[in-house]
Amino acid sequence: MQNNDKKYKELRIMSTDLLIPRNTYQRELNTDRVHKIVKQFDERVANEPKVSFRNGSYYVFDGQHTIAARVERNGGNPLMILCKVYYGLTEKDEARLFAEQTGFSADLGAGPRIRALVFAEDENACNFIKSTEAAGLRIDYAQRRARNRLACVSTAFKEFHKIGAEKYTEALRILKEAWDGDPDSLRSEAVGAMCDFIDLYDGEYDRKRLVRRCKKSDPNTIYRKGYAMGNSMAGSKKYLYQVLDIYNGSSQRLNLPLKF
């Protein structure tokens, strides 16, 4: 995407002519968010929707909720809307710009953002997806918990960047082998804790022992016991401690030291 592609013109466009490409990179319309915008709407600070003119049509890549709010404020009837219209963008350019939006109505979750970046062929996002699928799991862009579906997209993406693809995939593989993709084992707390454990004790832990010991525990153990610790241990450390506790058990000879 070249700098001259970012130039735009302000045009008034009929709302019915504004297309929302939900089959590729756009998210579904959140009616609760639309109602919130309507309730708080202030024309003086309202942002113009950002639109790409491509192949003779206008595609909205930022502002679909604002458009829906304007229509709702107009009694559900179509109306002319002032838009920022960009020219020379490809659909992948639009997807990347969608993922980067920061407007009032954006509140863009990690799932839709990663989905858009993958469509835009962003290298980091694509490698993140490949590393997740290499462990036998899939990212759920809608962030709904289910077997073998990773809903904690934000946590997973942060861990992927923090510890690298190899350790990230290994952590997910251990969770998968131990609990067969049970949704409770794929909570953000469990994913973060296992990634931290694999990173912190790299070269020290016995993989077979870790999987075996985890299998003997309930898949919700990491979250449940970590949560029960309250403020006795800071932040994510209380969940990491549960992985260490599962691994060590009552063994004196094979246990690992507390390093955090």
Automatic annotation (TrEMBL):
Q: Which InterPro entries match?
A: DUF6551
Pfam families on file: DUF6551
Per its record, how is this protein called by name? Type II toxin-antitoxin system PemK/MazF family toxin
The organism's taxonomic lineage, starting at the top: Bacteria, Bacillati, Bacillota, Clostridia, Lachnospirales
